[in-house]
């Protein structure tokens, strides 16, 4: 599936729906943090009023995002666009249907 | 007697006898909780970074060595790799060293506690328990800080591995063929250690209190993971007994697995259907591997729990249809949503109930939430054309609930007819008998449904008025209480008079001592945990109906539970000395 990345005044963003059975559990959290650390830009995940560091597995886990949760991914900095594309893909692969 | 006998939770069956080898000891050490001068801040931060890098390198090395069949553990090591470099843990600890002027050890300890406090507020129990992963990783870093590195000690001979707790990395680093069994202080029924031990097919006991204090390295121990006991420094006699037991158990294991695909039939040709209780489609393979002849109880709650919105009809339909297809022609019995009491959905309104066990749960909840109930019924009916599907309703207390539930089922059928969607019009409809009121009116209930399934776990609790998880009254959880035996028999007889089938699901049916009594009542089927199937089948294949009936008569002739238990134990033990050496029974608690 193609990810829709939107450009805002100060950042890039994408919205991902958690569709897999177990939700955002340890395995996808590890994968997301691992991939996020490959980029220089700041990457954050937002669920409702909670906003956390996408490079920290512990932060990601603390979202406790169950199936049906909508996650907004945001990025600022040099490689933000490229990071957003890569990360949106990672999130879809780890949290999408059938993941 | 051995010098000491410790108790824990057996998570992988078996026995091992050997020398203890301890890793990750936590007691007997001193964490320097001290302040440091400003001049030493950089030095402490460097120490911390070096320790976490060392652990990262160890994890990476372990990760590279994970064999294909332990892929699951590779994934756990991946998450531990991320944790050991996590900013919330490491950056926070470095900041503490700088801001508070404290040692690296103390800063690390404080960071872990801060994370633990944040995690303890999370609702989802799965995520909440991940704090254990943070603790084992931090513990490893702590050991490097304190200068200990005993996980790298090579195992020279086969050892009984003991630890405060084990990470998959620990076990990968050690030579697995030299590990006879695992024993840990931490952990419960679902810990990684159990999964790993079962995949390596070695015994394991977790959650052992006093392990670190009692066991010295190199000491001879017996790990009895049949009963969850550890004998430290055993006597000659104990060693001899356990060597025999180990030998017998290993032979027994081989033979029951070998025979588990044979039918559950007594010597005189009475056939009992042996089905499995499961809650995930993933468990199907284990049902088939253990010789299960269908699924007698599919708990449908899983798809509804731990998520924001209720599942869609389509999702449920796919789940049930896959299950039916994979099992066909064997039967799958889907129990409709049984939430309330201890199991609540996120979408469910939290009710203020003084007694949730006596509250809005099971069929009562569904009849109050008709949209949800009908959605599930539609999914079940649609799945019914894909195999041999039956449906049953939980927590039935009277006739009216059965009629209301069936009325809803009929409405859904009409909807499907109108929409031209196919379903099996003859899909059997049954109920769970788990309340004393349902027992007393089972004669009438039998006129309304196609089958009964007696849920003994709840029936015992509701009949005897006790909560088994309450340690003050758990001694009253008596499966062979005369009232329980009579209740079950009453229901079985009522079902048979009406010409409908009756099965028993619940732990009683997987208890080697109790199964012959149930056989004596001529139940039609049992539904038990997949792992219990081979052992139970083996017992059934050795008895004849006459001795089962005789045992039932004996049980019914005694007035007290202790007399009944004694009689059953003696009879069964004499009859099956071999197998019953290996199993704990529900009756063991009573004496």
From TrEMBL, chain A:
Annotated Gene Ontology cellular component terms: cytoplasm
GO BP terms in the entry: phosphoenolpyruvate-dependent sugar phosphotransferase system
Limits of the HPr domain: 9-98
CDD domains for the chain: PTS-HPr_like (cd00367)
Keyword Cytoplasm: yes
Superkingdom of the organism of origin: Bacteria
Location, primary (coarse class): cytoplasm
Locations listed in the record: Cytoplasm
InterPro entries: HPr, HPr-like, HPr-like_sf, PTS_HPr_His_P_site, PTS_HPr_Ser_P_site
Keywords noted in UniProt: Cytoplasm, Phosphotransferase system
A Pfam short name: PTS-HPr
Family: Belongs to the HPr family.
Stated name of the protein: HPr domain-containing protein
Organism: Desulfovibrio subterraneus
UniProtKB/TrEMBL annotation, chain B:
Active site: 192, 505
Signal peptide: none
Subcellular location: Cytoplasm
Biological processes per GO annotation: phosphoenolpyruvate-dependent sugar phosphotransferase system
Gene3D superfamilies xrefs: Phosphoenolpyruvate-binding domains, Phosphohistidine domain, PtsI, HPr-binding domain
This enzyme's EC code(s): 2.7.3.9
Limits of the Phosphotransferase system enzyme I N-terminal domain: 7-130
Pfam families (UniProt xref): PEP-utilisers_N (PF05524), PEP-utilizers (PF00391), PEP-utilizers_C (PF02896)
Catalysed reactions, as listed in the record: L-histidyl-[protein] + phosphoenolpyruvate = N(pros)-phospho-L-histidyl-[protein] + pyruvate
Primary role: General (non sugar-specific) component of the phosphoenolpyruvate-dependent sugar phosphotransferase system (sugar PTS). This major carbohydrate active-transport system catalyzes the phosphorylation of incoming sugar substrates concomitantly with their translocation across the cell membrane. Enzyme I transfers the phosphoryl group from phosphoenolpyruvate (PEP) to the phosphoryl carrier protein (HPr).
Family as reported in the entry's similarity comment: Belongs to the PEP-utilizing enzyme family.
Protein name: Phosphoenolpyruvate-protein phosphotransferase
Organism of provenance: Desulfovibrio subterraneus
Lineage of the species this protein comes from: Bacteria, Pseudomonadati, Thermodesulfobacteriota, Desulfovibrionia, Desulfovibrionales
Gene this protein is translated from: ptsI
């Amino acid at each position: 599936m193609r990810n829709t990345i939107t450009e805002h005044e100060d950042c890039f963003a994408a919205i991902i729906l958690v569709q897999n059975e177990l939700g955002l559990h340890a395995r996808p959290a590890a994968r997301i943090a691992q991939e996020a650390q490959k980029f220089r830009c700041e990457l954050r995940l937002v669920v409702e009023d909670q906003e956390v560091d996408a490079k920290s597995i512990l932060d990601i886990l603390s979202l406790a995002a169950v199936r049906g949760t909508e996650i907004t991914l945001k990025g600022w900095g040099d490689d933000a666009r490229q990071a957003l594309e890569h990360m949106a893909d990672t999130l879809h692969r780890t949290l999408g249907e059938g993941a | 007697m051995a010098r000491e006998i410790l108790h824990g939770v057996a998570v992988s069956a078996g026995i091992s006898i050997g020398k203890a080898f301890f890793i990750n000891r936590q007691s007997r050490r001193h964490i320097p909780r001290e302040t440091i001068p400003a001049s030493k801040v950089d030095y402490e931060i460097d120490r911390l970074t070096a320790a976490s890098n060392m652990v990262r390198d160890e994890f990476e090395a372990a990760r590279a060595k994970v064999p294909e069949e332990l892929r699951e553990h590779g994934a756990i090591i991946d998450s531990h790799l991320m944790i050991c470099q996590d900013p919330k843990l490491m950056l926070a600890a470095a900041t503490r060293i700088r801001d508070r002027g404290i040692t690296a050890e103390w800063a690390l300890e404080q960071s872990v506690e801060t994370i633990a406090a944040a995690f303890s507020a999370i609702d989802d129990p799965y995520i909440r328990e991940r704090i254990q992963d943070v603790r084992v990783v931090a513990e490893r870093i702590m050991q490097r800080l304190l200068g200990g590195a005993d996980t790298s000690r090579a195992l020279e001979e086969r050892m009984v591995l003991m630890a405060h707790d084990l990470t998959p990395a620990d076990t990968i680093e050690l030579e697995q063929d030299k590990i006879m069994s695992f024993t840990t202080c931490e952990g419960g029924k679902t810990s990684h250690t159990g999964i790993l031990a079962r995949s390596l097919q070695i015994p394991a006991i977790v959650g052992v209190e006093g392990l670190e204090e009692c066991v010295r390295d190199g000491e001879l121990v017996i790990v009895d993971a049949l009963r969850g006991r550890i004998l430290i420094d055993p006597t000659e006699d104990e060693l001899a007994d356990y060597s025999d037991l180990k030998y017998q158990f290993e032979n027994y294991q081989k033979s029951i697995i070998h025979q588990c695909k044979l039918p559950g039939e007594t010597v005189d040709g009475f056939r009992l259907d042996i089905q499995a209780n499961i809650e995930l489609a993933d468990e199907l393979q284990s049902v088939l591997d253990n010789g299960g002849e269908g699924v007698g109880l599919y708990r449908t709650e899983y798809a509804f729990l731990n998520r924001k919105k209720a599942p869609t009809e389509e999702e449920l339909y796919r789940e049930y249809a896959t299950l039916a297809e994979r099992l066909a022609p064997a039967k799958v019995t889907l129990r409709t949503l049984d939430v309330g009491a201890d199991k609540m959905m996120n979408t469910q309104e939290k009710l203020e109930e003084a007694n949730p066990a006596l509250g809005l749960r099971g069929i009562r909840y569904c009849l109050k939430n008709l949209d949800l109930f009908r959605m599930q019924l539609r999914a079940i009916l649609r799945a019914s054309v894909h195999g041999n599907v039956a449906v049953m309703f939980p927590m039935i207390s009277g006739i009216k609930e059965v009629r209301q539930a069936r009325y809803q089922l009929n409405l859904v059928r009409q909807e499907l007819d109108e929409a031209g969607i196919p379903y099996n019009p003859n899909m059997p409809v049954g109920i769970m008998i788990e309340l004393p009121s349902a027992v007393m009116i089972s004669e009438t209930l039998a006129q309304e449904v196609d089958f009964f399934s007696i849920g003994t776990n709840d029936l015992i609790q509701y009949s005897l008025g006790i909560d088994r998880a309450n340690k003050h009254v758990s001694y009253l959880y008596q499966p062979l209480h005369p009232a329980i035996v009579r209740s079950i028999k009453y229901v079985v007889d009522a079902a048979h008079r009406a010409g409908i089938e009756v099965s028993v699901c619940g732990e009683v049916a997987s208890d080697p001592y109790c199964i012959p009594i149930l056989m004596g009542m001529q139940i039609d089927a049992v539904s038990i945990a997949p792992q219990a199937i081979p052992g139970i089948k083996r017992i059934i294949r050795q008895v004849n109906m006459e001795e089962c009936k005789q045992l039932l008569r004996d049980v019914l002739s005694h007035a007290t539970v202790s007399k009944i238990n004694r009689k059953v134990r003696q009879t069964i033990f004499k009859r099956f000395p071999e197998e019953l050496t290996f199993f704990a029974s529900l009756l063991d608690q009573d004496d």
